[in-house]
Amino acid sequence: MSLPLPQTVKGDSASERLQNLGLELPDLPGNAYFVHHRAVDSSIHISGQLPYQDGELLGQGVVGRNVELETAKELARHAVLNCLAAAVQAVGDLDRVRIVQMLVFVASTPDFGEQSQVANAASELLIEVLGENGRHARTAIGVAGLPLNTPVEIQMICTAV
């Protein structure tokens, strides 16, 4: 049985598709302790990004306890927007970003078991915006806790095309 794949949103460029979704890439503030991205050969490693918007963490808690699945999915979309912003910092243009691998951490109860559904929301956004360049290898794992008690953190590896 084949599953329906997310579709690329209409628009000539990744930036237009992002805009057509009513989204924009955030500005990422600097940090004294880490960089948002590091290039190694042709790979660009994106630091774990939390679901921040305008400098505010959008949610706290544990999925399956006090955070609903739909909320976690929305938080994953915000976290992946921050990953894309870091990727653009690295390569200069959203149309040059190709996602290679994404690692999604979900702070969840031991019996939650739907971490992949949270990750699917981030994967779907990448494909909607980047098309084939957004398809990626992926791991979604449940963890006991994340920084600042956030429910979702996303790390990725990308390359420039």
From TrEMBL:
SUPFAM superfamilies: YjgF-like. InterPro entries: Endoribo_LPSP/chorism_mut-like, RutC-like_sf. Pfam families: YjgF_endoribonc. Residues 17-150 form the Endoribonuclease L-PSP/chorismate mutase-like domain. Gene3D superfamilies: RutC-like. This is RidA family protein. It comes from Streptomyces violaceus (Streptomyces venezuelae).
